[in-house]
């Protein structure tokens, strides 16, 4: 018999899938690391379990404890699944710009959800950073995950996602392209791949309204770069410890409109029903097409599933209201 001991045993070993029509104008072979095959439908399952296991080993998370995290949804989902299997309580603190689907999904897997305003500074007492921190101080036997600065996040991708991509491409990968939020994915995969072959180029996809690109290019944390944006899952107004700028060759910014339009195009032209950051990642890759030669193998990682965006990027009324389609 072949079976997993529990749902956590199905995390990882996601497929690589060739992108065909959308990348016709690109000379290289473009392959998607298709992370929605994880049980929580996103790449974040990998780091959620790793962060919990490392916290257990360090004695930070004890039996019957409460896990508290500020999350845009996917990390919360991974943490919630692991909390169920391992017997912890889960509290997710979210900002109000996140889709209702994401909140409902977290509640469906037994998580308590607390919603905070988006348009306040990170150090405002009502921000979701401050709220999660305060809750963890007030709740007995609790552990605050802090996916931004918790380096087990990067480690998960260094130990699983990176080696999988190297093996699946038979060591032929030349470029890795991925959206950047906490930085865990790009830093873990990027470090592993560059250790195997330092010539591999690693590109981060960023949003307008986020600090990463400017900081990478100038070393300046420019507050003028920070303003509200629509794209979900990527870009930040802080510099998380998980972003290892040393393994990143460059950032490309994608507009909210393009990210939304390409999220729809992936579904309609490739049959890839994916989240908003996948649209940003594929559009960013197309903006980088001059970087790729004929025999290159470009891997783009798609983080999460389209079901979480049916009220937004897959809703034409919403798309028209935003001015993204006619
Ligand atoms: N896409 C989505 C949908 C996400 O939820 C996240 C995590 N915030 C990312 C991309 C970025 O991944 P990372 O946090 O590893 O940089």
Automatic annotation (TrEMBL):
Designated name of the protein: Tryptophan synthase beta chain-like PALP domain-containing protein
Asked whether the UniProt record includes Magnesium among its keywords, one would answer no
Q: Write out the entry's keywords from A to Z.
A: Pyridoxal phosphate
One of its Pfam families is PALP
Matching InterPro entries, A to Z?
A: Cys_Synth/Cystath_Beta-Synth, P-phosphate_BS, TrpB-like_PALP, TrpB-like_PALP_sf
- Kindly list the GO molecular function terms attached to this UniProt entry: transferase activity, transferring alkyl or aryl (other than methyl) groups
Its needed co-factors are: pyridoxal 5'-phosphate
Domain (Tryptophan synthase beta chain-like PALP) spans 8-302
Q: Does the keyword Cell inner membrane apply?
A: no
Q: Name one GO biological process term.
A: cysteine biosynthetic process from serine
Tell me the protein family, please. Belongs to the cysteine synthase/cystathionine beta-synthase family.
**PANTHER family in the cross-refs:** CYSTATHIONINE BETA-SYNTHASE
